[in-house]
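tool_call: predict_structure(chain=1)
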Amino acid sequence: GSNGELGISSSLLNKMIERKMLSKTYIETGFTQSGIIGELIEKNRRISQIDSLFFGDHLVEKVMVKTGSNGLIGNRFLSRQDIIIDWTNKQLHIKRNSEVVENGTFGLGFAQSDSLGFIIKSIIVDGPADKAGLKPMMKILNFGGLDFEGGHNICDYISIQDQLNDSIQISVLGINGKPSSYSLHKQKLFN
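tool_result:
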Protein backbone atom coordinates (compact mmCIF):
# COMPACT_ATOMS: atom_id res chain seq x y z
CA GLY A 1 0.00 0.00 0.00
CA SER A 2 0.89 3.68 -0.03
CA ASN A 3 1.14 3.85 3.73
CA GLY A 4 4.33 4.96 5.39
CA GLU A 5 4.29 3.02 8.60
CA LEU A 6 5.11 -0.27 10.24
CA GLY A 7 2.24 -2.46 11.43
CA ILE A 8 2.75 -3.93 14.92
CA SER A 9 0.56 -5.93 17.30
CA SER A 10 -1.56 -4.22 19.95
CA SER A 11 0.21 -6.22 22.67
CA LEU A 12 3.61 -4.92 21.52
CA LEU A 13 2.35 -1.34 21.46
CA ASN A 14 0.86 -1.84 24.95
CA LYS A 15 4.24 -3.06 26.25
CA MET A 16 5.95 -0.01 24.71
CA ILE A 17 3.42 2.28 26.42
CA GLU A 18 3.85 0.48 29.78
CA ARG A 19 7.62 0.95 29.52
CA LYS A 20 7.15 4.64 28.62
CA MET A 21 8.88 4.18 25.28
CA LEU A 22 6.31 6.28 23.40
CA SER A 23 5.60 9.94 24.03
CA LYS A 24 2.21 10.16 22.25
CA THR A 25 -0.37 7.84 20.80
CA TYR A 26 -3.40 8.65 18.67
CA ILE A 27 -6.54 6.69 17.81
CA GLU A 28 -7.50 6.14 14.18
CA THR A 29 -11.14 5.16 13.75
CA GLY A 30 -13.18 4.20 10.72
CA PHE A 31 -12.42 1.49 8.20
CA THR A 32 -9.51 -0.31 6.62
CA GLN A 33 -9.43 -1.70 3.12
CA SER A 34 -7.64 -4.55 1.42
CA GLY A 35 -6.02 -2.98 -1.64
CA ILE A 36 -7.16 0.20 -3.36
CA ILE A 37 -10.78 -0.89 -3.91
CA GLY A 38 -11.14 -3.85 -1.51
CA GLU A 39 -13.90 -4.49 0.99
CA LEU A 40 -14.20 -1.98 3.85
CA ILE A 41 -13.71 -3.48 7.32
CA GLU A 42 -14.36 -1.52 10.53
CA LYS A 43 -11.24 -0.64 12.55
CA ASN A 44 -9.99 1.22 15.56
CA ARG A 45 -6.24 1.27 15.89
CA ARG A 46 -3.56 3.28 17.60
CA ILE A 47 -0.79 5.29 15.96
CA SER A 48 2.52 6.26 17.50
CA GLN A 49 6.12 6.93 16.56
CA ILE A 50 9.17 5.03 17.70
CA ASP A 51 12.47 6.87 17.95
CA SER A 52 14.51 4.17 16.25
CA LEU A 53 14.21 0.80 14.58
CA PHE A 54 17.03 -1.59 13.71
CA PHE A 55 17.08 -3.87 10.66
CA GLY A 56 20.12 -5.96 11.52
CA ASP A 57 22.76 -3.25 12.04
CA HIS A 58 20.82 -0.60 10.09
CA LEU A 59 19.26 2.19 12.18
CA VAL A 60 16.08 3.91 10.99
CA GLU A 61 14.87 6.88 13.05
CA LYS A 62 11.38 8.27 13.64
CA VAL A 63 9.25 5.39 12.37
CA MET A 64 5.45 5.69 12.52
CA VAL A 65 3.80 2.52 13.82
CA LYS A 66 0.15 1.48 13.72
CA THR A 67 -1.49 -1.40 15.50
CA GLY A 68 -2.72 -4.16 13.25
CA SER A 69 -2.36 -7.83 12.69
CA ASN A 70 -0.39 -7.69 9.45
CA GLY A 71 3.11 -6.67 10.59
CA LEU A 72 3.72 -5.07 7.20
CA ILE A 73 6.07 -2.24 6.32
CA GLY A 74 4.50 0.45 4.13
CA ASN A 75 6.12 1.32 0.83
CA ARG A 76 6.43 5.02 1.73
CA PHE A 77 8.59 3.88 4.67
CA LEU A 78 10.67 1.69 2.37
CA SER A 79 10.99 4.45 -0.25
CA ARG A 80 13.19 6.37 2.21
CA GLN A 81 15.69 3.50 2.18
CA ASP A 82 18.05 2.04 -0.40
CA ILE A 83 17.20 -1.65 -0.60
CA ILE A 84 19.94 -3.91 -1.95
CA ILE A 85 19.26 -7.59 -2.57
CA ASP A 86 22.32 -9.83 -2.47
CA TRP A 87 20.97 -12.90 -4.26
CA THR A 88 24.22 -14.85 -3.97
CA ASN A 89 24.38 -14.62 -0.17
CA LYS A 90 20.57 -14.44 0.27
CA GLN A 91 20.79 -11.17 2.17
CA LEU A 92 18.80 -7.96 2.19
CA HIS A 93 20.72 -4.73 2.89
CA ILE A 94 18.91 -1.55 3.89
CA LYS A 95 20.53 1.89 3.93
CA ARG A 96 18.82 5.21 4.61
CA ASN A 97 18.67 7.42 1.54
CA SER A 98 17.13 10.55 3.03
CA GLU A 99 16.31 12.28 6.28
CA VAL A 100 12.92 11.46 7.70
CA VAL A 101 10.82 14.59 7.94
CA GLU A 102 7.24 14.45 9.13
CA ASN A 103 5.45 17.06 7.10
CA GLY A 104 2.15 16.68 8.91
CA THR A 105 -1.21 15.11 8.25
CA PHE A 106 -4.75 16.21 7.53
CA GLY A 107 -5.82 13.35 9.83
CA LEU A 108 -7.90 11.29 7.44
CA GLY A 109 -7.60 8.27 5.19
CA PHE A 110 -9.37 7.61 1.89
CA ALA A 111 -11.01 4.72 0.12
CA GLN A 112 -12.67 4.24 -3.22
CA SER A 113 -15.40 1.75 -4.00
CA ASP A 114 -17.63 1.14 -6.98
CA SER A 115 -20.78 1.62 -4.89
CA LEU A 116 -19.71 4.52 -2.63
CA GLY A 117 -17.26 6.49 -4.75
CA PHE A 118 -14.33 8.28 -3.07
CA ILE A 119 -14.94 8.39 0.70
CA ILE A 120 -13.31 9.26 4.00
CA LYS A 121 -12.16 5.87 5.20
CA SER A 122 -10.75 6.83 8.59
CA ILE A 123 -10.14 9.76 10.92
CA ILE A 124 -7.38 10.37 13.46
CA VAL A 125 -9.10 11.41 16.68
CA ASP A 126 -8.12 15.00 17.57
CA GLY A 127 -6.52 15.46 14.14
CA PRO A 128 -7.47 18.29 11.75
CA ALA A 129 -10.29 16.38 10.01
CA ASP A 130 -11.82 15.28 13.32
CA LYS A 131 -11.65 18.81 14.70
CA ALA A 132 -13.38 20.11 11.54
CA GLY A 133 -16.24 17.64 12.05
CA LEU A 134 -15.49 15.20 9.22
CA LYS A 135 -16.53 11.56 9.74
CA PRO A 136 -15.73 8.18 8.20
CA MET A 137 -18.00 7.19 5.27
CA MET A 138 -18.60 10.80 4.13
CA LYS A 139 -18.42 10.94 0.33
CA ILE A 140 -15.63 13.23 -0.93
CA LEU A 141 -16.63 15.49 -3.79
CA ASN A 142 -13.43 17.53 -4.05
CA PHE A 143 -10.08 17.36 -2.23
CA GLY A 144 -7.20 19.72 -2.81
CA GLY A 145 -8.46 20.57 -6.29
CA LEU A 146 -9.21 17.00 -7.36
CA ASP A 147 -12.84 16.67 -8.49
CA PHE A 148 -13.96 13.12 -7.65
CA GLU A 149 -17.40 13.72 -9.13
CA GLY A 150 -15.75 14.91 -12.35
CA GLY A 151 -13.53 11.92 -13.06
CA HIS A 152 -10.59 11.99 -10.64
CA ASN A 153 -9.95 8.83 -8.62
CA ILE A 154 -7.78 7.50 -5.80
CA CYS A 155 -4.83 7.01 -8.17
CA ASP A 156 -4.89 10.75 -8.90
CA TYR A 157 -4.81 11.43 -5.16
CA ILE A 158 -1.91 9.03 -4.56
CA SER A 159 0.09 10.73 -7.33
CA ILE A 160 -0.19 14.17 -5.67
CA GLN A 161 -0.41 13.37 -1.93
CA ASP A 162 3.20 14.34 -1.19
CA GLN A 163 2.82 17.62 -3.11
CA LEU A 164 -0.23 18.96 -1.27
CA ASN A 165 0.05 22.32 0.46
CA ASP A 166 -0.18 22.60 4.23
CA SER A 167 -3.76 23.86 3.83
CA ILE A 168 -6.40 22.38 1.52
CA GLN A 169 -10.11 22.59 0.84
CA ILE A 170 -12.28 19.49 1.03
CA SER A 171 -15.91 19.22 -0.06
CA VAL A 172 -17.98 16.29 1.12
CA LEU A 173 -21.52 15.06 1.02
CA GLY A 174 -22.48 15.41 4.67
CA ILE A 175 -24.41 12.97 6.82
CA ASN A 176 -27.48 15.12 6.09
CA GLY A 177 -27.01 14.55 2.34
CA LYS A 178 -25.97 18.15 1.66
CA PRO A 179 -22.56 19.26 0.32
CA SER A 180 -20.27 20.99 2.80
CA SER A 181 -16.79 22.47 2.43
CA TYR A 182 -14.02 22.54 5.00
CA SER A 183 -10.56 24.03 5.21
CA LEU A 184 -7.97 21.64 6.66
CA HIS A 185 -4.47 22.50 7.87
CA LYS A 186 -1.76 19.88 8.31
CA GLN A 187 -0.81 18.99 11.86
CA LYS A 188 2.41 17.31 12.95
CA LEU A 189 1.51 14.38 15.17
CA PHE A 190 5.03 13.87 16.52
CA ASN A 191 8.11 16.03 17.03
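agent: Residues 79 and 145 are 26 Å apart (CA to CA). Proceeding to next step.
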